[in-house]
């Protein structure tokens, strides 16, 4: 009898839909995107992102490319990034709030956004979200270099 119970439990986990995973228990699936929108022929953008649990390493995205990652966002999840561009550098949290990406992001993204969109430009950093009504990404300047 126990043998059949073990087989049934095993099969339930094998055939369980892929969208049901640990995020459904521990929090909500979130994405962070970093888009290199610097001018062509400018110094290489370099950045390093990490959380208390995950070091995403150093990245050198080409202009116009998007580096992104997905994670289970819980109340205490925090990701920060340090950016370098020529002689400029800046570091800040890119995610620390499950509703608005960052605690002071309520003026930049609607509540309950699932994707935190960061755009790096020569004049600073822009925070955005996908605007369903306009069917495009919408950004507002978040901070200077």
UniProtKB/TrEMBL annotation:
<keyword id="KW-0732">Signal</keyword>
<dbReference type="InterPro" id="IPR010264">
    <property type="entry name" value="Self-incomp_S1"/>
</dbReference>
<keyword id="KW-0713">Self-incompatibility</keyword>
<dbReference type="GO" id="GO:0005576">
    <property type="term" value="C:extracellular region"/>
</dbReference>
<dbReference type="GO" id="GO:0060320">
    <property type="term" value="P:rejection of self pollen"/>
</dbReference>
<protein>
    <recommendedName>
        <fullName>S-protein homolog</fullName>
    </recommendedName>
</protein>
<feature type="signal peptide">
    <location>
        <begin position="1"/>
        <end position="22"/>
    </location>
</feature>
<comment type="similarity">
    <text>Belongs to the plant self-incompatibility (S1) protein family.</text>
</comment>
<dbReference type="Pfam" id="PF05938">
    <property type="entry name" value="Self-incomp_S1"/>
</dbReference>
<keyword id="KW-0964">Secreted</keyword>
């Amino acid at each position: 009898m126990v043998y059949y119970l073990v087989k049934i439990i095993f099969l339930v986990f094998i055939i369980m839909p892929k969208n049901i995973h640990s995020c459904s228990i521990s929090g909500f699936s979130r994405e962070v995107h970093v888009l290199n929108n610097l001018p062509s022929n400018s110094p290489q953008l370099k950045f390093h992102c990490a959380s208390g649990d995950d070091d995403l390493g150093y990245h050198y995205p080409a202009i116009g490319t998007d580096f992104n990652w997905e994670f289970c966002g819980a109340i205490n999840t925090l990701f920060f990034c340090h950016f370098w561009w020529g002689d400029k550098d800046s570091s800040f949290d890119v995610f620390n709030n499950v509703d608005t990406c960052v605690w002071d992001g309520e003026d930049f993204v609607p509540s309950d956004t699932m994707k935190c969109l960061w755009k790096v430009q020569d004049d600073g950093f822009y925070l955005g979200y996908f605007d369903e009504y306009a069917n495009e990404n919408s950004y507002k300047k978040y901070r200077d270099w």
